[in-house]
Amino acid sequence: MPSKEERIATKRAELKTQHSDWDDAKLDKTAGMLVGREMKNEEAKILKEAHEKELGDAISKENPGIDEKELAKKVKQAVAKEESDVKKAEADKDVAEKQTALYDSIFARAKLDDTKVDNSIPKDVRDAIQKIQKLTI
């Protein structure tokens, strides 16, 4: 496998044929970026394959005598479940961050504005602001 420097030099030569008007700095920067991205993708692929092998080994240990087709199916299901769990956790985190931002803005508005609450604000938000205003802040 060629070294990173060799890969960058090869990528730079490819880019130079495609973009003869680019200067050396742009060629070097772009080649480095592209090779870095390729190497990161290769590393991610290797890590994914290693993780799938670990899952396969664990499933094989739990189910001795399982055939390859069934093992591949169970590994695929386990990976899909993990990905689903990660997406759900990220979505839950996003919702929590949005709720926190909403509550922070409601509280800030209530602290700053002791006049009548604007009717253009949704009713539940207006009610929350008015309740906070009634508290001793």
**Structure classification:** mainly alpha
Distinct helical segment count = 4
Instruction: Describe the sheet with the most strands.
Output: none
Percentage beta strand:
under 5%
Gross morphology:
flat
The total beta strand count reads 0
What percent of the residues sit in helical stretches (DSSP H or I)?
A: over 70%
List unreliable stretches of 5+ residues. none
* Mean residue pLDDT: 87
What's the SSE pattern? Answer: HHHH
Spatial extent as radius of gyration: 28 Å
Question: What number of structural domains do the residues give?
Answer: 2
In whole angstroms, how far apart are the ends? 66 Å
Give a written overview of the molecule:
- The chain is an all-alpha fold.
- It has two domains: 1-66; 83-137.
- It has helices spanning 4-18, 24-62, 68-112, 123-134.
- The longest helix is centred in the middle third of the chain and has 45 residues, at 68-112.
- The model has no long low-confidence stretch (mean pLDDT 87).
Short description:
The protein has about 140 residues and is mainly alpha-helical. It is built from 4 helices and no strands. Helix 2 (about 25-60) packs across helix 3 (about 70-110).
